[in-house]
Specification:
Blueprint (H helix, E strand, L loop, with lengths): L4 H8 L12 H32 L2 H26 L4 H24 L5 H24 L1 H4 L5 H30 L1 H21 L14 H14 L1 H17 L6 H8 L4 H24 L6 H21 L3 H29 L5 H30 L1 H22 L8
Helix pairs in contact: 2-3, 2-7, 2-8, 3-5, 3-15, 4-5, 4-8, 5-15, 7-8, 7-12, 7-14, 10-14, 10-15, 10-16, 11-12, 12-14, 13-14, 13-16, 15-16
């Protein structure tokens, strides 16, 4: 008889398995370099959102920044996936990380010179989004070059742990730095943090890149990736879920700076605290996934996260106490990472290596491309109906989709 989910979970859980991927030297370099860079990026993101709100006092402008950051995803992401299958992914990442470092220092320079304006922040967000569009497919696909396939889920979980450690600490430190020294120093620290990941990439000892034989045109390669995704039921279902979560669910993060001020009557430090507690919950989920080792019940956890996430967002919309809001956001972050972490790992393990750059570009297009549309919609909704109503509407739509998947797509729950 097949054991039930609880028994399987209990049988696989072991903290000793949590850091398996760190046994590999290349992954260790990646982990610590990315950790440092992400810490700075969260400081910048927290400061950028609050600075825009200080300049405009408008939640709609928060949506404009999110939209500008995401538009390049639609313009460049699929092409970037083809590039990631054609050139060494390390080279692509060094280029994108250098571009983001230059943009961070440009933001700092404008801020220190007291020249920063809302349109600057929107334009710089577009620049960061362009660099990220080329960065994301290579960043996802390079994991398989750093660890063997059987430990890839653990490596992706540790990637999330690294990301969410930075999410937990970066916004909090960014909020305090903003309050004490101003936003310019947040941007400077972010610029310096990119040096760590660039150095780590340069120090890796990777196998020589072998170009794929008999390549098609760029358009032909792109069509091949799209056809593969369209032919795989599990991948289609996962990418559809990620699209809805990114469009309606994750959009709540756009309103956090306004929520800190208008709903909780706080300041930049409150904004950083809210961002950090969400990251703390996400970190806990990432470490839990990593501790499960080479487990085979991803579908159960993705389904659990997809239902719990919108329910917790609805609770958050009714909370008016900062400590309670932080507590709920821990749960929000936990549920969110169950979805995104395991969706990422599942798509990668279901995809052959020669198609991974292109398939992950489609996944990344869905993940990042829906966010700017969601940011624009929720910013407009908040300006018209208020922040709580905007979050309730978005969470309700997300919940309806999650329940529909539960009822009509049982194959997701069976995914191993």
């Amino acid at each position: 008889m097949r054991p039930n989910f609880a028994a399987r979970l209990n049988g696989r859980f072991s903290w000793r398995q949590t850091f398996t991927a760190l046994r590999y030297p290349n992954y260790r370099l990646w982990f610590w370099g990315q950790m440092t860079s992400l810490f700075g990026s969260w400081m910048q993101g927290t400061a950028q959102g609050y600075l825009m709100y200080e300049l405009t006092r408008s939640p709609a402008y928060l949506g404009y920044v999110g939209f500008a950051n995401g538009v390049p995803t639609w313009l460049f992401m699929l092409y970037a996936g083809v590039v990631a299958d054609r050139i060494p992914r390390r080279r692509q990442l060094i280029f994108t990380q250098t571009a983001m470092m230059i943009l961070a220092f440009a933001t700092a320079g404008l801020t220190f010179a007291h020249l920063i304006r809302p349109w600057h922040l929107i334009a710089l967000a577009f620049g960061f989004g362009t660099a990220n569009a080329f960065d994301a497919p290579a960043r996802h696909a390079i994991v398989n070059e750093l660890v063997p396939t059987e430990d890839m889920t653990n490596a992706i979980a540790l990637n999330s742990a690294m990301f969410n450690t930075a999410t937990a600490l970066g916004p909090a430190v960014g909020g305090v730095t903003y309050s004490l020294f101003g936003p310019g120093w947040c941007f400077v620290i972010n610029g310096l943090s990119f040096i760590a990941v660039i150095a780590a990439l340069g120090a890796m000892k990777l196998a020589s890149f072998v170009p794929r034989q008999g390549r098609n045109s760029i358009l032909g390669d792109l069509k091949e990736g799209v056809r593969y995704v369209a032919s795989q039921a599990h991948i289609r279902t996962i990418i559809g879920l990620v699209a809805v979560i990114s469009l309606f669910g994750f959009a709540f993060a756009t309103l956090v700076p306004a929520w800190a001020v208008e709903i909780l009557h706080g300041d930049a430090a409150t904004n950083g605290l809210l961002q950090a507690t969400r990251g703390l919950g996400a970190l806990a989920a990432a470490l839990l996934i990593a501790s499960l080792g080479r487990f085979r019940f991803r579908g159960y956890l993705i389904t659990l996260g997809s239902i719990a996430f919108p329910l917790l967002l609805i609770v958050f919309a009714f909370v008016r106490s900062t400590p309670l809001a932080c507590l709920v956001l821990i749960g929000v972050g936990f549920a969110l990472i169950l979805i995104f972490n395991l969706a990422n790992a599942s798509v990668q393990t279901l995809t052959p290596l020669e198609l991974r750059g292109r398939v992950m570009s489609i996944y990344s297009l869905t993940f990042f491309g829906m966010m700017p549309i969601g940011a624009l919609l929720i910013g407009w909704s908040a300006a018209r109906f208020g922040e709580p109503a905007a979050i309730i509407i978005n969470a309700g739509l997300t919940l309806v989709y999650a329940l529909a998947l539960f009822a009509f797509a049982p194959r997701l729950r069976r995914l191993e």
